[in-house]
Amino acid sequence: MIPAPGSSDVRVRFAPSPTGMFHVGGGRSALFNWAVAKHQGGTFVLRIEDTDAARNKPEWTDGILSALAALGMHADDPTFEGPYFQSANVDKHREATGRLLDAGRAYYCDCTRDDVAARTGSQQSGYDGHCRDRGLTYESGRALRFRTPDEGETQVVDLIRGNPVFPNASIEDFIVARGDGSPVFLLANVVDDLDEGITHVIRGEEHLSNTPKQQLLWEALGATPPVWAHLPVIVNEKRQKLSKRRDKVALEDYLAEGYLPDALVNYLMLLGWAPGNDEEILPFDELVERFRVEDVNSASAFFDVKKLLAFNGEYIRAMSVEDFVSAVDPWLRAPHALWRPEQFDPAAFAAVAPLAQSRVALLADITDNVDFLFLDEPVRDERSWAKAMKPGAPELLADARAALADLGDWSAEPLKETVLVVGEKHGLKLGKAQAPVRVAVTGRTIGLPLFESLEVLGRERTLARVDAALARLAQDPPQAPAQ
Length: 483
Ligand code: GLU
Fold this sequence. Notes:
mainly alpha, 12 strands, about 10% strand
């Protein structure tokens, strides 16, 4: 069991390999570890497992650090220790293999995969122990294998999966150092955990099969194994394991689309765990207070992008208008935007910001909602045009134009009243009457509330756009639908 809150001897770690974009699953593992460290007053160790020189790149390490920081795990936080680099600990890994050898817990082996297959009759079988007692000494090309016990069983204490038991006879003599003498991941990972005083290993389920082997290594190296917790696999809507080939998994992509870090953190915390009381949207401190790794579910966790989007909308709506304005600022400035930087009018944006805030679910959606304010001409969206500009639209627009030109008070209420009256004259309810006006002025059938938008856009630009739409309709009148 994890010690009670207040004791500070809990040391957890997040140990990513810098081999690609930072994955949302990595974010979930990091956050669960972080939550345990925070909840217990313990320490969160970051270890970069960078021993696979062929696949590692320094930019992936930078990506890990910036992703963690984006999710609120900052290297200067007192809970945070590291980053340590696995590659810097290679001497200790080698020393550990030497100790295993000296203690008779490991032996050299010169079998090839084909040799083993020829003896066992299967390419898939584990190692058959052929070299166990041959007394081979080191020569280049000979791997070092750990001698697993023949009898007994290894019980893993796993806070999520019950305590699975593995008969030792079923655990093959696995390799701890390759033919060139370099220690393998399984061993390096254990030596580093041991060295860093890790008390709880909380990681993805894909490592569960390594765990009995690693626990044997802990014991063989004279240490008490940690408590384990294997987090459930994350799946897409087809119940397939989330994969970078199939699914959008890079945290960076979510941030670039305008998912808020707080919403992502909240959502990732719910992948396999629930805070209880049917509550889901909670501040991180509250999640930390309630988080217990023992309560994580072992069943696979569905990464529901729609739900994440809904969370994001909630988080956007909960922001102060001021924070919202600064959060969307990068989207309102070129190069994200369709308009030139000098066309952006902060005062006009400020006037519609609260309306926009109540309807966007993604920060990136802001541009479609407000582009009519900054572009010289509204966007040309043919589908919107065809939908709104039906027979009768030219007459309605012409009447609306005349009434708007005469309107004394150019503000939302009188604007609405004007379009309402014009619509009535054409036998149309307000919703139908405003559609051609909306498309003439904003280019789209959907967007911010129309009359507030017209108020901010101003009379001159509104009328000019209605005129332009009328000119287009005169040239290309709407066709009655075929009977
Ligand atoms: N470096 C391993 C990975 O990226 C993590 C191993 C562990 O957490 O023990 O999957």
